[in-house]
Amino acid sequence: MGKGGQHTQGGLTRSMEYDAAGRVISLTNENGSHSDFSYDALDRLVQQGGFDGRTQRYHYDLTGKLTQSEDEGLVTLWHYDASDRITHRTVNGDPAEQWQYDGHGWLREISHLSEGHRVAVHYGYDDKGRLTGERQTVENPETGELLWQHETKHAYNEQGLANRVTPDSLPPVEWLTYGSGYLAGMKLGGTPLVEYTRDRLHRETVRSFGSMAGSNAAYELTSTYTPAGQLQSQHLNSLVYDRDYGWNDNGDLVRISGPRQTWEYGYSATGRLESVRTLAPDLDIRIPYATDPAGNRLPDPELHPDSTLTAWPDNRIAEDAHYVYHYDEYAD
């Protein structure tokens, strides 16, 4: 048996246990729930028991490819071609996705059956292997009749960077870049949509947009940053949308100030959001956020003062202020 380890932050502890090979075999979260892991002789994960009590198993072939996965009675088989490319999979014996490739080994099509229709995505490439077209189709699987399709074309600049997308029956969307691909602007069918000005670190400092942008831009958004690189302010030439940002020493956002309202954010010793306070001339509202030790949301203590719940033991939330949640055997 190997050693164990633990991590404590803000009085909350998460522990791990390792085998002699240094592999994690048990993880205990802050609620005391356990997740266990088993491996084969080649260090491949073969079984995992989750915090929610679910068990998943994995099987591999001699070359290490995943051939079968099991999840509480849901059995998925994975099939490959002679080049080790995945070709199709089945779920409890029923066909699922299928993959097809061209002579270069590039993915040409992926398809599946949905509500009695064959749904597929077809891919086209140039001689450099770059995606040039993506066509989505819906067909009758028995007759092959095409029921619906939509195609999107892709183009590239001289540097090989993607710079144009043309959807069916719509003007092309183009983006202008510089250097190694930093965005400088966007156009729709030749009409400027937005332009960006950046500093020496390539951070956005001015965004011009509206009314065909450029010198005729209706709006101009300026952004400034703290010495640590955090967003410090955003000012629009319509003052009602101005924002200033405040951060604590841990890098957490603690304040957003606007002309009409200010939002203040409080955090626990572990860095989890504990409260949001909204301030305005005639408004002062504080919304608390309670979590269990593992970080799962608990019922609002002000809306549910009689609640005695302190943790979700299986790491699944059963209810909140608005909804009740039910899970199947696969934790969905």
From TrEMBL:
It comes from the Bacteria. InterPro entries: T6SS_VgrG/RHS, TEN-like_YD-shell, YD. Keywords: Repeat. Residues 12-132 form the Teneurin-like YD-shell domain. The keyword Repeat applies. Transmembrane segments: none annotated. Gene3D superfamilies: RHS repeat-associated core (2.180.10.10). NCBIfam families: YD_repeat_2x. This is Protein in rhs element. It comes from Shigella dysenteriae.
